[in-house]
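I'd like us to work through together how a protein chain folds, taking it slowly. We need material for that, and I hope you will provide a protein of your own picking. Go ahead whenever you are ready, and we will take it from there:
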Amino acid sequence: MMKKLFLMIIIMTAGMAMHAQTYPPKETPKLEFALQLRVTLGETYAVGESQHGKRIVIPITGGVFEGPLLKGTILNGGADYQLANADGSRTELEAIYSIRTDDGVNIHVRNYGIVYNGKDAQGNPSFYFKAAPKFEAPTNSRYAWLNNAIFVCQPEWTQEFKGIVLNVWMVK
């Protein structure tokens, strides 16, 4: 009898929880600007078709970054590894590089993203390019906060800068 009563309470509680949900959710995550990276790029080259798609590599040769809590340079030696599907409408990217703050702290970055040039849900032409950088800062540094948050970025191109500009926000 006790097991049956316990089971009924669980089922009733689960049912009430389902009805208590709101759509859309009441709370939306907030974005806080974290930094802007101005990345210089080397000459793009193709590895070619692989079992996963067309592999393209874009060397990262340097640049600068700045935000409210950090500033510095982008180190030479990284790359943006891209994988394009057969028709070229979708590309997955993984940029791996390091940055150095003005006070000499090295931070590793892995930026995963998607570039899509196709059609939206209504069939209209659509361009989408977003990424999610993940920072790996020394835990004993003033930049350790980068290790404990989710970040999103959106690229921007300008005529006066020959590279890519990445605007990065922290999800609050």
Remarks:
- The longest helix spans residues 2-20.
- The longest strand covers residues 53-66.
